[in-house]
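Take a record.
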Amino acid sequence: MTYFGNMSLADDYRKLAQSLVETTYRLCWDSERKMLADTYDKKEFSQHANIMAILTDAIPANDQETLLTRIMKDNSITQCTYYFRFYLFEALKKLHMGDEFLPLLQPWHEMLARGLTTFAEQPDPTRSDCHAWSASPLYELLSIVCGVRPATQGFEKIQIEPSLGNLGWIDANVPHPLGNIRMHLEKKGDHLNGTIDLPAGLEGTFIWKGNSIALHPGHHALQF
């Protein structure tokens, strides 16, 4: 609404969102388990509710990384099925925890090993349901590992903040309305080297370990 100039409606939505997240936190936060309960009676807990709390900032910003780490390790709470892991991956991205992404792809490796030709919706017993959201790793390989994301509406500018995890290098071709973004990156410890080529008309920012440089159309040699 702000983008389209409807400031009054944008303000109404902003106030409603703030009221919802504040009330949810007040009624559902369990100080003993240090996570958000599914309902105010605090008998059931899930990764789902806590991931949404992180994405909506219902949880204080300083507590979000600790909370996400906690719920990824706690098998006693309701676990995300494959399609809902899209939101888990988005929470990793929001908190700059992209290096945790690749180990979470083990279920997809297992699907391929079992001969599934499309991705399942949930763990066994299951079938190859061709569930579109379960294919979110294909998107996240570009947006988390390669780190290519829109920096403005309409993808007019980009931000590149790669998270290679345990990979030593990546080669990528990321499609953009103005042409392909080509990347070759090599990582050794905390050091990163490589090249990026942007199509004509595209600008953005490259970020690595808190350091950033401006990107312009054409060829870039990187050394961090």
